[in-house]
Each structure stands twice: as structure tokens, then as C-alpha cells.
Amino acid sequence: MSGGVRHPEPGAVCAVAAATVASPGWWVAQRDRQRMWRSVSSAEHAVRVAQRSGAPVGDMPSLTRQLRSAASGVDAVLRASARDRSLRNETSAQLTHIEAAAADLQSAALHSLRMVAGAETDDVVSAARIEVEALAAGLRAARAVTRPGSV
User: Fold this and answer.
1) Alpha carbon distance 151, 139 (integer Å)
2) Which sequence spans correspond to the domains of the chain?
């Protein structure tokens, strides 16, 4: 022992690690954390793509930052409550709210993207149709000029 710092025995560290990993509650908490972070990341990604594409996003970038912050708090509770079923149950409602908010933000970003893509698609399809019809009419007129008497 040097400088009054006491290090845990290697066997004690292994026992704590084994008790945590062997605990079904620990695995449930890990699954819940992964599911929550996947939903938050999906929402952030959808909002970033919509923003980069020029789709209207309103305050969604700020809301995804707030969502990430709230998810960090819930994540901390989930990590700490892996062995405490009652605390995990209390956190379950917060987890559900985080995932629902993430799904709402992702859905709104995708809706905005679809709206912009649809408008752009309609415009280009209409312009292409007009151009093709104009070209066909021009070709018919040119053919009529080169072959008099045929229309």
C-alpha cells in the first residue's frame, strides 16, 4: 500500500463484474439502453439529412439536442439501476417517452423530406413532359418543311 491508496483485490473486482454480467437485470438495462440510443440516433440522423437537403425542419435540430441530453440522464439511471428492479421500473416511463419523442422527430423529418422530394419530382417530371412534347412538335414541323405536302 503506497500513499494511503487502497486498491481492491483482483478477486473482488472479478466477483463484482461477474455478478453484474450474470444479472438478468443488467442485460435488460443494456437492451433498453441500446434501444433508446438507437431511436435517438435515428431521429438525429433523419433531422440532419432533412436539414442538409433543404427541407423545412423548424426547431427539430434543437429538439434533437435536448432529446440527446434527456437520453443521457435516462441512460445514467439505467446504468445505475441495473440491479434495482424498482428504480428500473420507474425509469421505464422516461425511457418510453424518450423513444416516443425520437420516433416523432424522425417521422416529422421524413415527412418534410418526402414533401420536398415530391415537389421537386413533380416539377421535373412536368418540365420533362413539356420538353419532350415540344421537341416532338418541333421534329414534326421540321419534317413537314423538308417534305412539302406531308403533315
Assistant:
1) 11
2) 11-116
